[in-house]
Each structure stands twice: as structure tokens, then as C-alpha cells.
Amino acid sequence: MCRSIKTLRPPAIPEEATEDEMRAAALQYVRKVSGFRAPAAHNQEVFDRAVDEITEATARLLDGLEIRGAATRT
């Protein structure tokens, strides 16, 4: 499952990663770690919160990376 998470930093992709791309990667990560493709109703809130938090962490990571020979993200 995690093999479908693609690299989101340049030069692996030509432009900045989109929110949708970051969210898709976060969803794949949470699915892998939790072992659930889709959580039961009683786990949905914590599952969704984890996806949100990992999406935010991914955005911070990509914003903070300095890629040699490439323009920095703004």
C-alpha cells in the first residue's frame, strides 16, 4: 500500500505538490499504519484527524525543504 505514495518534492514532480496529492499520501500512510482501508464508524473521527494532521505535517515538511539547484517554495 505505501508503495503507492509518490515523492512530492521537486524534481520528482515538476510543480509544487497539491493539497490533494499531500492528502492522498497521508491517507495511504494512515491506512498502512492502522491496517484499515476504511475504518469502522467508531474509528472514523480519529482516522480522519490523523489524515488531516499528516497532511499538515507534509505541507510543513515540503515548505521547509531546501532543494539544491531548485527554486525554493513560497
Attribute tags:
2 helices, mainly alpha, elongated, single chain, about 70 residues
Fold and architecture overview:
- With 74 residues, the chain is mostly helical.
- 50% of the residues lie in helices and 0% in strands.
- It is built from two helices and no strands.
- It has helices spanning 19-34, 44-64.
- α1 (19-34) packs across α2 (44-64).
- The longest helix is centred in the C-terminal third of the chain and has 21 residues, at 44-64.
- The radius of gyration is 14 Å and the shape is elongated.
Secondary structure layout:
Layout: H1 19-34, H2 44-64
Concise structural overview:
The chain is an all-alpha fold. Helices cover 50% and strands 0% of the residues. The mean pLDDT is 88.
Count of alpha/pi helices: 2
Helical fraction equals: 40-55%
How far the N terminus sits from the C terminus, by CA atoms, comes to 31 Å
Structural class: mainly alpha
The main β sheet shows up as: none
Low-confidence stretches: none
What are the secondary-structure elements, in order, as H or E? HH
Strand fraction: under 5%
Based on CA atoms alone, the radius of gyration comes out at 14 Å
User: How confident is the prediction overall: mean pLDDT?
Assistant: 88
The count of DSSP E runs of length 2 or more, i.e. the number of strands, is 0
Name the overall outline: elongated
